[in-house]
Amino acid sequence: MTTTEILFFILTGIAFFSGAMVVMSRNPVYSVLYLITMFFAIAGHYILLNAQFLAVVHIIVYAGAIMVLFLFVIMMLNLNKDTEPHNPPWVKIAAVIAGGMMMATLVGALKETATPLTKTNYDTTIGTVERLGNVLFSDFLIPFELSSALFLAAMVGAVMLSKKNIH
Amino acid sequence: MQSLTNRSKVVVKKEMSFAEKLYLPAVAKGMMITMSHLFKKKVTINYPEVERPRAEVYRGQHVLKRDENGAERCTACGLCAVACPAEAITMEAAERKKGEEGLYREEKYAAVYEINMLRCIFCGLCEEACPKEAIFLTDRIVPTEFERDDFVYGKDKLVEPTKKDERINIGPRQTQTTIDFKKNPEYAHNLLWDPNKKIGPKKGH
Amino acid sequence: MTLSIVLVTFAGFWFPLIMAGLVFAVSLGVAAYSTYVERKFAAFLQDRLGPSRAGPWGILQPLADGVKMVMKEEIIPNVSNKFLFILGPAIAMLTALMTGAVIPWGPKINIGGEWFSLQVADVNIGVLYLLGVVSIGVYGIMIGGWASNNKYALLGALRASSQMISYEIAMGISVITLIMLSGTLQTSEIAAQQHGFWADGWFTWNFFKNPLTFLIFFICALAETNRTPFDLPECETELVGGYHTEYSSMKLGFYLFAEYVNMFISSAVMSLFFFGGYNFPFMDELSNHPNLVAVIGAASMLIKTLFFVMVFMWIRWTIPRFRYDQLMNLGWKILIPLSLANLVATGITMWATGKIG
């Protein structure tokens, strides 16, 4: 095995383990911390694919901003066992089935459409900033700008919700 | 109201100008002020090496004096303990035996004499009260200790050494003014008792 | 001849590792002596003498402090979460030291005919790496504060996280402005662009190109390193010790130390981004002696960095702490709109002057 393969399997192992622990942890703070670990493992995968920009942005946005807010809210709420909602068993089963179907659909869809990457057809410059910038601002300009407009709308909505006396 | 120092400023609450709202000029001004202190003379005194000048009549650790023959002057009358506003002084009296004349000047002496230095406020009233010129405050500083009990000074620490050259100098405390002051008839108890002399405060005082 | 070959092979393999060790050692050493300088400087600003007993002028004080920290009893609260309690200071220290890796500490050095840059890792996304590591730095404080199971520690952790999130936005936008100016994410490239003093009819240092960006970045750097006037997470008057209330011994030392390492690194980043990094006057006149240039360059980088460390301290002993609502007002209502306006203005100016198509 090459170093890359060893790293790949280690990172995959960490990602799977922490992904499972997110669901299985009793304490919500642990769940968030495992989720952060998983984000780091996935960022490691990005680096293995030579997409450093994506890896760093992943860490900045998810681990550095969103998960900090998650942790912040969970610490503020101070969730513990007394406040934990007890769902009836059928809800849990339904959730597992729904989640499993979602996964099956995703796996099926990806298997049909995506061409498998090999060492020969993988473009090693695909993750660089230049390529990403060129693609985002030419081929995907409209979706990119639309998503920014969506974010703006969400932000304005959040401000509206938090302000109480707006007529 | 009239100003006492001419330094007071009239405070006006007004809208801040744009430059004031930026705060940056004010921050820069403040930083210049702190920077100017970098070059000022430092007020710290490196204590054990350098000592701050003390007043001549500084009231520090007490001493129980001996007379010129080396006998303790204290007669355990208890006036110092009565005078002490902090109730720091305790003593036990004992009778002088035959052959101890060289040790104690009077027939009665203090077998135990203790001053609690944590209670003492170094006011010097014990010194004022003493009829035998036995206790004095000196310019020595009471050192620090780790235990409270160590601050209760017994005779071992209070009585001065017998040898002439090791005696504690109380000269600075006993200026001519002080001596003259003690000769004042109002404080005549500090002199040798004279039955013919009228003692006590003057009339109409 | 053979010696130079040996040197090159040796250096080629070991140079990045040696560089990493060097950056590590220098960061820690500077941080250790920052504690001494901080106390001395504070004392001088207040007309005192400061530590003067350990060694001549007290220069062994950091050593004494370190020994004291290590020798002290280590207390882990019974009700705390032990693993996370230990993880907190470890993360704080780790993230503080990680940032030093992408900073170019000097120009390229010539060993036996080969060129080596005085940088641990010259990655093409160095600026983003810095932002990323800074953004995960808050976890050390949050985890430590939460695991202590103490209300003051928790409040300190919450303050730290909300403050860091708020000021990260303005900092990110000011960094984007800088990236627009320099057109690269590579830190070594940013340093190289500020070479010389005058080019294209303007100063080369980014500070002169856009002083407002520097101001915003500087204020945000103060907030990100939890320095006065933004030291609310460890505000003694309100929160006992803030997030490190329950910490003792070297774990407390790690938190305090991480703050000084952060201060050193952010000063280095400021001198790199805005004040020319390792560039110094009359650099080109010395171009025949590249190794001399490298040494002087590294020294000038260090001097600029230490100057900013001193400014950090100077501010600490001048300006009082913000109130919490003032902090949030400054972050959200002033710095973010200001940095956005600055971004737009910079873009328009660059477009008008033909710098970008």
Question: Could you please describe the fold and organization of this structure?
Answer:
The complex is a heterotrimer of chains A (167), B (205) and C (357). Chain A has 167 residues and is an all-alpha fold. Chain A has helices at 3-24, 28-48, 52-77, 89-113, 129-136, 141-162. Helices cover 74% and strands 0% of the residues of chain A. Chain B is an alpha+beta fold and 205 residues long. In chain B, the strands form two sheets. In chain B, strands 2-3-5 form a three-stranded antiparallel beta sheet. A two-stranded antiparallel sheet of chain B has the order 1-4. Chain C is mainly alpha-helical and 357 residues long. Chain C has one domain. Chain C is 66% helix and 3% strand. A two-stranded antiparallel sheet of chain C has the order 1-2. Chain C is globular, with a radius of gyration of 21 Å. The N and C termini of chain C lie far apart (51 Å). The mean pLDDT of chain C is 83. The chains are: A mainly alpha (167), B alpha+beta (205), C mainly alpha (357). Chains in contact: A-C, B-C.
What's the name of the CATH homologous superfamily of the domain at 3-80 and 87-124 in chain A? NADH-ubiquinone/plastoquinone oxidoreductase chain 6, subunit NuoJ
Percent of residues in beta strands of chain A? under 5%
Q: Identify the most extensive interface between protein chains.
A: A-C, 20 and 25 residues
Might you state the CATH topology name of the domain at 3-80 and 87-124 in chain A?
Four Helix Bundle (Hemerythrin (Met), subunit A)
First and last CA, distance of chain A = 66 Å
Per DSSP E runs of 2 or more residues, the count of β-strands of chain C stands at: 4
Low-confidence stretches of chain A: none
Examine the secondary-structure arrangement and name the CATH architecture of the domain at 3-80 and 87-124 in chain A: Up-down Bundle
Q: How many β-strand stretches of chain A?
A: 0
Q: Biggest sheet of chain C: strands side by side, in what order?
A: 1-2
Q: What is the 3D form of chain C?
A: globular
Termini separation of chain C comes to: 51 Å
Poorly predicted residue ranges of chain C: none
Helix content of chain A: over 70%
**Assembly form of the protein:** heterotrimer
